[in-house]
Amino acid sequence: MCYNVQYLTKKAEEYAARLGRGIDEILPATQSKEPVYQVSGFVFPSLPILLPHMPIGWASWGLVPSWTRDLAQAMDMRGKTLNARLETIDQLPSFKNEVANGRCLVLLDGFFEHHHLAGKTYPYFIQASNQAPILVAGIYTLRQGLPGMDSPDTAIKTVSIVTTRANNLMKEIHNNPKLPHGPRMPLILDHFSESWWLNGQLEDLRRHSLEDGFLKAHTVLPLSGTHSPGNTPRASIPFLYPVIGLPQ
């Protein structure tokens, strides 16, 4: 699963180039947020998202489904909807409506995942091999006037990151033996799969696998605890553990 990410640490010009957009569509939104070097989805941070023909925007991580009755139910749901599995996304009530009407792109610098070895876990930072920004499939929804909100005019835009089966690199890294569906990774979009996602071509995406070499990874300091660098640039700096056999 994908629960820790990094974004907005690169220049806005790089995001604009990756998206084929004008800098005026990217810069205002990126200037309004502090850089995030490492954040957990379980604090429900805002993620940069992109909709077709729209400037970059923001959505809170952890989807509030369209059928949610009130704010209490929404908060209960959010920890369960950080990720949505590509294989079942159009079948589950939590995501079925949003995948039909709320497909979007999530813009990231990279993400973190843990490798399990001899009863311990070792965090990795994963990014594009050329260190360019990456686009991840997302689904979003906009809810307004949920009972329990301060005002009936209050709107909340939320998003889930779509995950898919792991490619060869991520199979090595994301090897938690307790995973019910095997190794996973965010549904990272290349130029072919990006259009498939936005056009709702789910079967094409399910047959697609991210090419080997698209990503690279290295071990980093712990993501939490006393040795964690927290939300600082050190979060993604390589840190070597004295363990033989970890993928590099």
Give your account of this protein's structure.
By secondary structure, the protein is an alpha+beta fold. The protein has a single domain, classed as SOS response associated peptidase-like (hypothetical protein yedk fold, Alpha-Beta Complex). Helix content is 21%, strand content 31%. It is built from seven helices and 13 strands. The strands form two sheets. It has a five-stranded antiparallel beta sheet with strand order 2-1-7-8-13. A hairpin with a 2-residue loop joins strand 7 and strand 8. Helix 1 packs across helix 2. The model has no long low-confidence stretch (mean pLDDT 88).
Quick one: CATH class? Alpha Beta
Name the beta content range: 25-35%
Q: Count up the domains.
A: 1
- Order of strands across the widest beta sheet? 2-1-7-8-13
User: What integer value in Å does the Rg equal?
Assistant: 18 Å
Q: What is the share of helical residues?
A: 10-25%
Number of strands: 13
Largest beta-sheet details: 5 strands, antiparallel
The SS-based structural class is alpha+beta
Note the run of SSEs as H and E: EHHEEEHEHEEEEEHEEHHE
The tally of helices reads 7
CATH architecture: Alpha-Beta Complex
Q: Average pLDDT value?
A: 88
Q: What is the CATH topology descriptor? A: hypothetical protein yedk fold
Shape: globular
The named CATH superfamily: SOS response associated peptidase-like
